[in-house]
Write a structure and sequence with these properties.
The chain has 140 residues and is an alpha+beta fold. 35% of the residues lie in helices and 21% in strands. The two termini are 23 Å apart.
Length: 140
Amino acid sequence: MSRHKIQRFMTKVPHTISPKGTLAEAHQAMRDRGVRHLPVVHEGKLVGVVSQRDLYLLETLRGVDIGRELVEEAMSDEPFVVAPDALLEEVADAMASRKHGSALVVQSSTVVGIFTSTDALRALAALLRATGLEPDDRGT
């Protein structure tokens, strides 16, 4: 069995947002790009990740103004980070066991990609197609 690297399946050069961006800006960026996770970058350095779920959770608090509240208030400041040559199976296993929705792919302190649960499902589909199994062989 070949050892697939995460860089083959990641979303390359994901859109990022500043920690000083507003929640409204984060929502708009997610809607415009059809994504649920944004790496948070300050002066070229990864400082966190904000997810659609993070935004919704903060917005449920009384008095939150999404046009004024900053991304840094909603972001996770300890994102799951992997290198581009990390193995797909290890990243997917870690994401599943730790319940991470994404892995940020970083090389030389620069975000070069993001691997999400959606990317993982696409990878699974591609690998199943590559095996040449018929649908009945997969239990469907």
